[in-house]
Amino acid sequence: MAEAVLTRRRRRSWRLILSGGWLGLVVITAIFAPFIAPHDPLAQDLLLQRLPPAWMAGAEPGYLLGTDGLGRDVLSRIIYASRVALTVAFVAAPVACIIGSVLGLLAGYYGGWVDQIVSRIVDVWMAFPPVLFAILLVAVIGTGLHSVILAIIVIDWIRFCRVVRAEALVQRRMDYVDSAHIVGLTRAAILVKEVLPNVLPAIVALLSLEMGIAVIVEAILSFVNLSISTDDPTWGGMIAEGRTIIHFAWWVLVFPLIVLFLTVLAFGQFGEGLKDRFDPVLQ
Amino acid sequence: MSAPFLDISDLSIALKADSSHRLLRSVSLNVAPGEVRGLVGESGAGKTMIGKTIFDILPHAVTVLAGSVRLGGQDILTMRHRDQRQLIAHTSALIPQDPLTALNPVRRITGQMTDRLTAILGLSRGAARDRALQLLGEVHISDPERVLASYPHQLSGGMRQRVLIASAFAAEPKLIVADEPTTALDVTVQKQILRLIAEMQERHGTALLFVTHDLGVVAKICRKVTVLFGGSVVEDTDAESLFAQPKHPYTAALIAATPRYDRPEESLLPVPAEVIESTWQEIRRADAAWSEAGR
Fold first, then answer.
1. I need a labelling partner for A247 at 20 to 30 A (CA). Which of A40, A191, B98, B126 fits?
2. Which of B171, B134, B221 minimizes the C-alpha distance to A183?
3. At residue B76, does pLDDT exceed 90?
4. CA quadruple A193, B101, B103, B93: dihedral positive or negative?
């Protein structure tokens, strides 16, 4: 018995710990931004323009990552910008996930005309250039957080739909689906009880990955100034501002870029780690 | 002799896309309560298609052209869908070919076994669990508690097949279709599983349709045999007379092709091309008559 317990215990996954740790840190700083950020992210001070990070010559104490061209604290702006990024990630990705997964499951499992309709819609969607689509959408309904979220949902639900449909197609042909049918379970019951649990690991991994993608899309849209319309900081916006003064103050561009990179990477890795956890065969 | 529980008569199925080419050609076959019937044929003869028709789980691309499949006198092909599923669930069970894909990989054995008991017999969760433990004991699993708590991949192929056999007999079905249940197992385990199925069948008095391509297996456990070739029945007889005096040349050739340790020089002979050709000619004549009658 003791042996069984030992093998049952889950191996420590550094992938999950590191990516989860980083995401936890970002989430906490986003929630408690007013308490954590050392400065007002919007406060300009032209006397403190382009201060370098704390460990370089000419730094001012209290400005850990330096200041930008208008004398605003880079660290505080990064912290506040994570609020926008995470809002987009945690709203847009799950909604896209639900829409895409439900349609994908129905198409893959029921097949026939349901599959025909869903698959043709996906075909049409894929033929449309996504960035153009996003810009068009923002242009029509105006800039703002809502438009960014809507754009991501409208564009990225097909990502879930395609993967989930393919998985459901495979599962539908498995003998255990036939067995469930013989036992007298209805098709809906089989879909929820037998097929969905097998597709779930893929959905979870994709959801986490999609959150990272949502963060990137938001950064791209704010880089081209199509995201939120107020002065609130965003990672993409900071990178855009930093680009113009890269020769005098590289830190304005580099630090938000690093945070963006780490966050997107962590979302992807977290999803992969969770997928392994969800899959009993891999444990 | 009691009335057959499973009674298939003149069953013809074909691809929806091309109904002129039949996959099953007017197949008739029956299994009486408590009887074991072997269904023998080479790959592609339509053995599995017959099994799938009995449970009405044919692929979407296949359609039934004619004939009936009766379970206890009721034709499942003309019933309302809901009644049909109920009838099948309550009277019949399948022991599948591949024990790996027949169990859901992400669910523990407990749920997969008790689902059937709660759904069909209306047992409570606790009662269903007790019954599952008892059934696992019946198939000679020594630590049923551990097996119930396991995922399918944590069990060996033979163990999984035992679980599936226990599941098949769980709700006391009148008919069990065993679709080449030993094909995916290695030889030593095959023998145990075969003995186990025979033992369970005898204890429960179930009608058993044993689908196989192995005449050796048929000789061991079947009373009646149906030989299938190219989707049509070439011989339907007792197991003894099949081996003593096969009526159809294809059956005789099939018996001669079976490996035998006692008479190695008379066994493992290839089926002669003339026999296959003449059997196909027979089938084509029957096909022509059938489409003539259709018009």
1. A40
2. B171
3. yes
4. positive
Q: Residues with Cβ < 8 Å from B223, sequence gap 6 or more?
A: B35, B36, B37, B238, B239
Question: In this structure, what token pair is assigned to residue B149?
Answer: 């708590």
B140-148 long-range CB contacts below 8 Å, 24 or more apart?
B140/B196, B141/B166, B146/A4, B147/B109, B148/B108, B148/B109, B148/B110, B148/B113
B92 min Cα distance to partner chain A (Å)? 8
Residue range A22-43: mean pLDDT, rounded: 92
User: In terms of C-beta density within 10 A (0-12 exposed, 13-18 middle, 19 or more buried), how is residue A70 classed?
Assistant: middle
Token duo for residue B2: 């009691």
Tokens of B210: 């044993």
d(CA A169, CA B246): 44
pLDDT at res. A283: 56
Given a contact cutoff of 8 angstroms between Cβ atoms, the answer to whether A44 and A70 are in contact is yes
Task: Show the DSSP H helices in A128-186 as ranges.
Answer: 130-141, 145-172, 175-183
> Cβ B153–A179 below 8 Å, yes or no?
no
B252 vs B244: CA distance, rounded Å: 10
Residue in chain A closest to B94 (alpha carbons) equals: A179
Size of chain B in residues: 295
Alpha carbon of B170: minimum distance to chain A alpha carbons (Å): 11
Q: Which of A146, A138, A280, A122 is nearest to A200 (CA)?
A: A280
Packing angle, helices A196-223 and A130-141, rounded to 10: 70
Reading phi first (left if > 0) and then psi (alpha if -120 to 50, else beta), residue B205 is in: left
Distance CA B107, CA B288 (A): 50
B55 and A184 in contact by Cβ < 8 A? no
Q: What is the pLDDT of residues B186-233, one digit of tens each?
A: 888 888 889 999 999 999 999 999 999 888 888 888 999 999 998 899
Alpha helices by DSSP H, listed for chain B, are: 47-54, 81-91, 109-116, 125-138, 144-148, 157-170, 187-204, 215-221, 239-244, 249-257, 273-294
User: Is B60 close to A184, i.e. CB distance below 8 A?
Assistant: no
Q: Which residues of A touch B (CB under 8 A)?
A: 4, 111-112, 174-176, 178-186, 193-194, 197-198, 200, 279-281
Q: What is the 3-state secondary structure (H, E, C) of A83-124?
A: HHHHHHHHHHHHHHHHHHHHHHHHHHHHCHHHHHHHHHHHHH
Percent residues over pLDDT 70 in chain B: 99
Band the pLDDT of B287: cuts 50, 70, 90.
confident
Distance CA A152, CA A140 (A): 15
What ipTM describes this predicted complex?
Answer: 0.82
pLDDT in tens, B5-39: 999 999 999 998 888 888 999 999 999 999 999 99
Q: Give me the phi and psi of B13, to 5 degrees please.
A: -130, 160
